[in-house]
Structures are given as C-alpha cells and as structure tokens.
C-alpha cells in the first residue's frame, strides 16, 4: 500500500492509518463474500457471546456485529446476564460448537469473576476459535503451523506488511506480555516470516532499566494499558512505534465524557518516530478486520479442513 502522509502528520513522521487499512481489508473480504455467494456458498457466520453490561465490551461487540454487516457476513449476538453460571456458559459454548450454521464465535472478555475464562476458551472448538485464544491455535502459532491467529497481534503484523516496513533483522521491543497481545506479537515477529525475523525483547512490569531497553528498539510495541506511559526519552530517533493501548480517560470535551488514550504519549513521541499508530484509529480497527478475516478462514476451512 502506498504510504500516504495525512494532513495531521508533519514531515518528520508518518501516521500508520489503521482505520484506512482496516477499511481496505474489509473491502477485500466483502469482495470474497460476494464471490462465494455467487458460487452458491452461504456467507460466513460469526456469533458473539456477551455476558453482562460492561460499557467497553458492549461497544466492542456492537462494532464487531456492525463490521459483519459491512462485509456481508451473518452475525448472531447472544447476551446473558452476569448471573449466568460457568456451567451454563460452557453449555452455550457447546451449542455453538455443534451449530453447523456458525463458522466461528467469540466470547467477549472480561467475564464475571465467578467464571474462569481459560475454561471457557478451552471449551471452544479450535476451528471456530476466531479470536485465536485457544491453546491449540496458540500452540500451532508457536510451532509455525497454520493457525487462527489472535486478532490484535496479527493486525499489528498486517500493518507492518501493508506499510512495507522492514522488520528483518530489526530489534523489536514489546512492552506487555499478555496472552492476547504482548506474548503472541513477540512470537510472530520473531518467526522466520515476512514480516518477521526480528530480534525480540519482551518487557513487563518486572523489567529493569526499561527505558534503556526501549531506546534500543527499531520497532517499539506498547501493550500495557497505562495511558501516556511511553515518553520521548524512551524512544530512539526513527523508531516505528505501535501503540496498542486503549484506556478510557475522562474528557469533558467529548460527548461521551471520555476519550480513548494510548500507552504512548503521542505528541511527545511522534516527532521522534519514523512511523507511529494513532489512538484511536491505529491498531484498534485492525483487530476487528483480522477477526473478520479469521471468520472467513474458518468458513473456508482453511486452517482445519471441514
Ligand atoms: P494486560 O493483560 O493488563 O497486560 C498488561 C501488560 O503490561 C502486563 O504484561 C504487565 O506486566 C505490563 N505492564 C504493566 N505495567 C507495566 C510497567 N510499568 N512496565 C512494564 N510493563 C508493564 O493488558 P492487555 O490485555 O495486553 O492490554 C494492554 C492494552 O492494550 C490495554 O490498554 C488494552 O485495552 C489494549 N488492547 C487493545 C486492543 C486493540 O484492539 N487495540 C486489543 C487488546 C488490548 P506483568 O505481566 O508483569 O503484570
């Protein structure tokens, strides 16, 4: 994809436009769905389970359902009160596992405290696990086998690919080691793949001399959940900065009373970076696009032949 400077971007750095890239991917998916329908195949069908009424989760799930409509998928939203028991939820998961009309499904996290998310994730059939969180998909990813990859890490890799950023031999520093972002992105970028072949350092809350390490990064990925944590003194000139953080902070200028803030102190860091993702409009939209792509792959039986 050509690298198009936007009006918000001074000459010194370029914004990595995740919103536009996600739109491009959705157009590609929609075209494939049209082709499949013309060939007499049913559209991919994504289901989402939402437990309780967490504001963030409601928004994420609503956006996922809307995205399905945009690309011609069918979608089903199953809502349960947070009084649902673990056994009841596991039974719902099993119903979706057995339902031949459903190609893939997600259980929106976080779940209420009385439900073990790992038990729920492990109950999902790997071929329908379009979030890519099941140990089978994680294990296949680590082994370099085809897998349904976790959406946020694969969205980051896809951004690097589409912006044609060189990763081979580069030092990538990832801050944050969660199972859904930090750890998998560190694995993907270390693989002998294109993009990939990075030398990766994975940092976390026990890391000593964090700023010393981040200053050696050619590519810096921040997935911490602490608004504005990464400041200019932690970034080397010319680094590619990927901000995964999305924390709601109070903002009286917004109608909702809050705004999303990334883990990177954008105004401070951007002038030092060569490329940087904004928040919002960077990694976030890519996560949904990659979820749709996983659902299409599941429908096609691309990873686990049906
Ligand atoms: P998480 O599970 O809370 O993990 C946070 C990680 O940051 C942990 O590994 C933690 O280290 C590390 N950390 C915390 N404080 C630190 C510090 N002072 N120095 C170094 N490391 C520190 O978070 P997550 O689920 O990965 O999410 C991270 C952020 O990304 C959140 O803002 C989340 O909302 C956002 N997110 C965005 C998307 C998207 O689509 N854009 C998707 C997923 C997540 P320890 O392991 O040592 O505790």
Automatic annotation (TrEMBL):
Pfam families: THF_DHG_CYH, THF_DHG_CYH_C. Transmembrane segments: none annotated. One of its GO terms (molecular function) is methenyltetrahydrofolate cyclohydrolase activity. GO terms for biological process: L-histidine biosynthetic process; methionine biosynthetic process; purine nucleotide biosynthetic process; tetrahydrofolate interconversion. Catalyzes the oxidation of 5,10-methylenetetrahydrofolate to 5,10-methenyltetrahydrofolate and then the hydrolysis of 5,10-methenyltetrahydrofolate to 10-formyltetrahydrofolate. It comes from Hymenobacter daecheongensis DSM 21074. GO terms for cellular component: cytosol. Pathway: One-carbon metabolism; tetrahydrofolate interconversion. NADP(+) binds at residues 176-178, 246. HAMAP family: THF_DHG_CYH (MF_01576). Its EC number is 1.5.1.5, 3.5.4.9. This is Bifunctional protein FolD. Residues 16-131 form the Tetrahydrofolate dehydrogenase/cyclohydrolase catalytic domain. PANTHER family: C-1-TETRAHYDROFOLATE SYNTHASE, CYTOPLASMIC, C-1-TETRAHYDROFOLATE SYNTHASE, CYTOPLASMIC-RELATED. Gene3D superfamilies: Leucine Dehydrogenase, chain A, domain 1, NAD(P)-binding Rossmann-like Domain. Homodimer.
């Amino acid at each position: 994809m050509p690298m198009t400077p936007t009006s918000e971007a001074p000459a010194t750095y370029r914004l990595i436009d995740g919103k536009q890239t996600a739109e491009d991917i959705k157009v590609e998916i929609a075209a494939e769905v049209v082709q499949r329908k013309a060939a007499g195949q049913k559209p991919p069908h994504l289901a989402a389970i939402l437990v309780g009424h967490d504001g963030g989760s409601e928004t994420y799930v609503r956006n996922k359902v809307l995205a399905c409509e945009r690309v011609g998928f069918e979608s089903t939203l199953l809502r349960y009160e947070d009084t649902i028991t673990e056994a009841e939820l596991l039974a719902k998961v099993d119903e979706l596992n057995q339902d031949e009309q459903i190609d893939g499904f997600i259980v929106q996290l976080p779940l209420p405290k009385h439900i073990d998310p790992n038990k729920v994730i492990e109950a999902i059939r790997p071929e329908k696990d379009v979030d890519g969180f099941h140990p089978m998909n994680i294990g296949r990813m680590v082994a370099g086998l085809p897998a349904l990859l976790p959406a946020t890490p694969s969205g980051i890799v896809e951004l690097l690919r589409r912006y044609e950023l060189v990763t081979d031999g580069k030092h990538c520093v990832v801050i944050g080691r969660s199972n859904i972002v930090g750890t998998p992105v560190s694995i993907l970028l270390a693989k002998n793949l294109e993009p990939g072949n990075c030398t990766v350092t994975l940092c976390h809350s026990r890391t000593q001399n964090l700023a010393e390490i981040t200053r050696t990064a050619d590519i810096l990925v921040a997935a911490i959940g602490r608004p504005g944590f990464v400041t200019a003194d932690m970034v080397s000139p010319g680094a590619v900065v990927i901000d995964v953080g999305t924390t709601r902070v109070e903002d009286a200028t917004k109608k909702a009373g809050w705004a999303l803030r990334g883990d990177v102190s954008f105004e401070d860091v951007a002038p030092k970076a060569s490329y940087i993702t904004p928040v919002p409009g960077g990694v976030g939209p890519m996560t949904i696009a990659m979820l749709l792509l996983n659902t299409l792959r599941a429908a096609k039986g691309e990873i686990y032949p049906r």
